[in-house]
Amino acid sequence: MFYKKTLGSGLSLVLIASLITSPANASEKATPRSEPQSSVRPFSKKVANRPAVVSVVASRAKSKRVNITVTLQLGAVIQGAAPTGSEVRVGNNICRMTKSKTKCTIRNVAVNSRLRISARTRNSAGFSKWSKSVSFRATSGHRWSLQSGTPGNSSPGTPGATTPPRSTTPTLLTNRSLSRLLKTQATKFSKFQALSAPVVTSSGVRRFTASGNITFRVSSIIGLAQTDTNMNSGSGLFAVSTTGDSFDALATGTATISQFHVGPDGKFYVLFSSPTPLVVNGPNCLLAEVSQQSGIPTCIDNSLTNISWGIDKPIQFDSSGRLYFVGDSNGRAVLRRYAAGQATDLINDNVTVNNFEVLPDGTVLLSGTTTANSTSWVRRLTSANSLSTLVTGASATFMQKFPDGNIYFGLWGNNNFGVRRYVHSVGSIDSKYWIAGNMGATPVDRYFDAWTMCQAYLSTMYGFCGAYGANVRSIFSSSSGSTFAVSGIRGQSSILMQYFPTVQVVPTVVKSVTSAMMAGSKIVVAGTNEAGRNVLTIFDPAANSETIVLDAENEVEMYSLAYSASQNRLLFSGLQFSNNTVVTGEIVLP
Questions:
Q1: Residue 414 domain-assigned (yes or no)
Q2: Around 374, how many Cα atoms within 13 Å sit in the side-chain half-sphere?
Q3: Residue 476: closest CA among 447, 496, 505
Q4: Distance in angstroms (rounded) separating the CA atoms of residues 561 and 304
Q5: Phi, psi of 502 (to 5 degrees)
Q6: Spans of biased composition, class Low complexity (predicted)?
Q7: Residue 490, Cβ neighbours under 10 Å: how many?
Q8: How confident is the model at residue 198 (pLDDT cuts 50, 70, 90)?
Q9: Is the dihedral of CA 223, 224, 230, 231 positive or negative?
Q10: What DSSP assignment string belongs to 185-254?
Q11: Which of 21, 347, 422, 456 has the fewest CB atoms within 10 Å, counting from its CB?
């Protein structure tokens, strides 16, 4: 619950509430556990259903040793006999987990060991049978998942069922003390992003600049924001401090900023409303990168007349640090690559691009339309500038690189309905759909059958079922190798789904998701519950637990969310229902 006091200025602050101890660690130690004691007679005498091994990851431990982390998918829960634990057998070692946990690690396994890995689950009636075993070689960085085998593999394993099981219901907790109100606002933040670099506590790192030169505030700044109206901000961009205060992001100079994007490279990027000189009497600039340490901008492009900011990720990078973006130059569309102060155009002027995804080696997947004949397509552009068409007659609704190193994308149109994947190791589209239903009355070859799954759950899964998973509002991957999506579009009941390594519903209490994002190893989910009340929860996939932080007791309708990795804090802007006031707040992640 928010506890607040009113200051003379009229602003509301909330007293910092004490934090509650975090949930159990995701990785269970490979030690024996005590048997559960209970005098209650079990409802069912049926043993637990068999689990499945869905991913295995080897990470370096020390010389000639690796740690092996195994993730399970539990079988359907027997009524009256919830799981009391699971065991994973890795070669001759056994790793034990309690209750419904699904991940454990065997440490210090000899490098190059050839392992057989299997698992079983226990309930009050006894152990299940061992799962189907997985062959795995213990080399650092080696990954295996149920669908992909090895990274970039063109022949993924066959899923255990055409309709993946729904996840077991997570353990539900409530901890409202994790949230606190920072400030009231005059208007809402329509866009809010946390800086990717650690917060600068001193502005002394900024070198001297001449009067009139453009510089940005970075000292004690945790994020950047824009509002619907841009009231009280001459530049149109707000800097948000660690205390929740917001003010014009420009420290010196005059400019109007139409868009911004925080990159993963310790910089943020600003798009000026019109070409603007960064220094007095200097050349005009449209797109600039700004150091999060100094606040000094550097011009990236001064020749474009517009940049396509409606794309999911307008600024992208390859592993060499080269920057890619789509824009318009004198009426023609360009995909531009920027490196070492030089810009290179990568496409011709007879196309428009609505989405793109850059791979580490500089390969780019493009979704767009040929202007001359209005034909939509998905194409591959190699780092050597070789172009090939992957799909024709449809454009991608989303594009995302998944943990297996391949690009997955949604399609909707001209008999292309569902989710497909580009297999980077062979440079082509997988012949099987990743997710699909029946196109008309004709089934298509797919790994995950949305048609069967949606027949049973259409009323509660329309955001996913309405386009066979092709429409997503946001999509993100965890460090443990899973990918999640808010499936649906605005106006639909969007739901949280897991898209990789298996496709299944994430059974959160948020039934209509308005926003979700990865925050460390956890997922923050905001939206409305079954009663239509605004809620915000923190879902921990590893522990299969969900913590309610905001609900009817301290209801806030979320406008925007931003996660600060350096401080492990979630920032939010929203409407507080108790006093009908727009507020900025924070949540400390458990």
A1: no
A2: 0
A3: 496
A4: 31
A5: -120, 165
A6: 148-173
A7: 8
A8: low
A9: positive
A10: -SS-EEEEEE-SSPPB--GGGSPP--TT--EE--BTEEEEEEESS-TT-SSS-EEEETTS-EEESEEES-
A11: 21
Residue pointed to by tokens 């992208």: 316
Q: What are the angstrom distances between the C-alpha of 148 and each of 16, 51, 129, 353?
A: 46, 19, 25, 29
The neighbour count for residue 107, using CB atoms within 10 Å, is 17
In this structure, what CATH number is given to the domain that contains residue 122? Answer: 2.60.40.10
Q: Tell me the C-alpha distance between 206 and 210, whole Å.
A: 12
For residue 462, the 8-state DSSP code is H
* pLDDT at position 402: 96
At 553, phi and psi to the nearest 5? -75, -30
For residue 57, what are the domain limits?
52-145
548 neighbors 540 (Cβ within 8 angstroms): no
Residue 518 is assigned to a structural domain of this protein: no
108 within domain boundaries: yes
Number of domains forming the structure of the chain = 1
Indicate the DSSP class of residue 47. Answer: P
Q: Are strands 442-443 and 250-252 parallel, antiparallel or unpaired?
A: unpaired
How far is residue 265's CA from residue 197's CA, in Å, rounded to a whole number?
Answer: 8
Sheet with strand 364-370: strands edge to edge: 351-358, 364-370, 375-381, 387-392
pLDDT tens for each residue of 246-298: 889 999 999 999 989 998 878 899 999 888 999 988 999 999 999 988 999 99
In a domain, 128, yes or no: yes
